[in-house]
Amino acid sequence: MMIKENLTRELRALTNYADHELNLWIKEQIYTVRELSHSKILTEGVVLASQSQKDKSARQKAFIEHYLKSVSDKLDTVLVLTAIDTNGQILASTIDFQDTIPIPRNWTEAASIQGNVIVPPHWNKLYATATLSILVPILSLDDYILGALVATFDLKNIHASLKDSIKSPLGEILILDRDNRIMLSSDDRFLHDSKNDAILFHDAEDLKQLEINPEVLQIPRGIGSEKVIGLAYVSANPPITIIAHRSYDSVYAAWKQQRDLFVSLVGAILAIVAIIAFKMGHAIVVPLQKLILATEDIVKGNFNVDLKTSQRNELGKLTQMFNQMADKLQRNQIEITSASNTMQEKNKLLETLSVTDSLTGLFNRSKLNSIINDQLARFSRNNRPFAILMIDIDYFKALNDSLGHIAGDEIIVSVAQKISHCIRSVDFAARYGGDEFVVILTETVAEEAIKTAERIRSHVANIQNNESNKLTKTVTLSIGIVQSENEDTSLTHLLSRVDSALYQAKHAGRNQTYCIRPKLLAANG
How far apart are CA 415 and CA 4, in angstroms? Predict the structure, then answer.
C-alpha cells in the first residue's frame, strides 16, 4: 500500500512536470509565430496576393514563399510555414506539396478572441512524426483579419524537455493524441512499427483506469515490450494524454532492496537491543532484584541488611543509600524498642499507682469499688458468696496525736502489712480511708471470714513501734464482717451493711469482730 501511494505521487509529479514543460514550449512557439505574423512584408504580401491580378498574385505568392523559406531556415523547430487567407486557402508555403492541415472552420472567430488557434497534435504520416500546428492571424493596420500564418512544428523538439535527469521525478513519458495513439516518448528505445504509423495505446477504458490509479502496462521497446506501471493525465489544451510510467522490475527491485535493507536494519536493531537488554539485565535487573529482596526483609522486620556493590552509577549510589537507610532504620528500631520498653514499664507503674494506695501499697478506694462491683456481678451469675471485712484501728486518733503523724503512718503501714500476710492470694485488701481498711474474701462464707478476721486481729496485736519506742499500748482492731446476700444489688448497700457491722464491733467495746450473719443462717440459728 505504501509503495503504491509513493509511486502514485511520483508518477503524478512526473505528468505535471511534463505538462508544464509542454505548455511552456508551446507558449514559446506561439510567441515566435506571432512575431512572424506581424511582419510588414507578410502583411502587405497577403493583401496584394488577395487583391492583385492572377499574374501579379503569382509573383506575390512567390515573394511570400521566399520570405517564409528564409525565415523557416532560421527556425530549427519549424517543419512548415504556410500563409492562408480567411477562407483557409493556401496563399504560400515553404514546401511544394502540402499536408492537409485540419484547420477549424470557425478559426477566425477563435483567433479574434484567443489571438491564436492550436491545431491538436497528431501523427503526421507525411513527415513520419508527431506534429503540432499553431495558427496566428495576420492583421491589417486597423486589426482586420487578412489571413493567418500556420506554423507546423515537429514534437520531437520537446523530447529533451519532457524529462530532465535532475529536475524531473523518476520515470518515462508517453504523449498520446486524442485518438489514443502514441505520438512521442521520452525513452529513445521506443520504436514505431515498419509502416511508420503511430501505435494505438490500448482502449479508452484502460485509459480511464490509468487516470485514477497506476496500472500494469505493456509498453513497446524496440522489437519487444516491457512491463511497466503507468499513470495517465489528460490535458484539455492541447488535447493530449500524458502517461508517466516506470519499469515494473525497477519499482519492485527498489522495494525489495528497501525491504531487505529494512529487514537487515530491524535484525541489527533487535540484536543491539538484545545485547543492551542482556547488559541491562546484568547491570540493572540483578541489583534491583537484590534491592527488592532486601526491602522484603525490612518489611518483615529484619533491618540487618548490607548490600555489596561495586558499581559507581546511579544503581550503585542507590544501593549505598539503601544501606544507609537500613542502618538508620536498625538504629531507630533499637531506640524505639528501648523507648517502648521504658514506656511499658512506666505504664505499668502508672497503672499500679492508679489502683494502689501510695502509703500502704494496698488497693485504693477506686480499685476497691471496681473489685466489689466485679464480685457482685460474679455472685449474681453463679450465686457463690464472698465476704467483706471492714477494719478500723482502735483509738488511732489518740495514738496519732500522742506519737505524731510519722509514727501514725508507721502504724498504718504495719497494719496493712499484717492484713496482706493474713489473707490468700485470691483475696483483696484496700485502704478504705484514714485508718480504715476493707478486705474482700472471694468465695468465702461468714464462718470462714470470722476466722480470717480473728487471725488479722491477733497478728496486729504484736505490732511494736520500733522507731519511736513510745508505744505503751497494744494496737487493736475493730472488724465488721458481712457475707454477700441476694439483697446486695449495689456497692453502696453492701458497704453500708459492713459499716453497720463495724459499728456494732466498736459499740461492743472495740478490739473484737462482729459478723452480721446471713438471714437464712440467722433464722436457722
Answer: 115
